[in-house]
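note to self — DONT lose this again. spent like an hour looking for the file last time. sequence + predicted structure for the chain T wanted, 90 res
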Amino acid sequence: MSATTPDRVSRVFVGLVLATCVTWWLGSDSTLASGGFELAATLSILIAFVKIFYIGADFMELRAAPVILRTVFLTWVGVFAAVAIAMVVV
């Protein structure tokens, strides 16, 4: 049996759509985008990597995967998020 329930997947899907809308708002005409590029870009990258985590955990079912696979996935997400944010800030 799958580790995810249809209700959870539906909630994650709605959350991903809302996160996409927030990212779109940040990139288009938000007050954060006009006030500081670094802040808007950092938030957009952070939201993108949160979305990557939820897609991997729920839609690719890594939430129920062996510990080593989950650890590798979480490490990958964390390292690449930090690198991407550092490239914008520095």
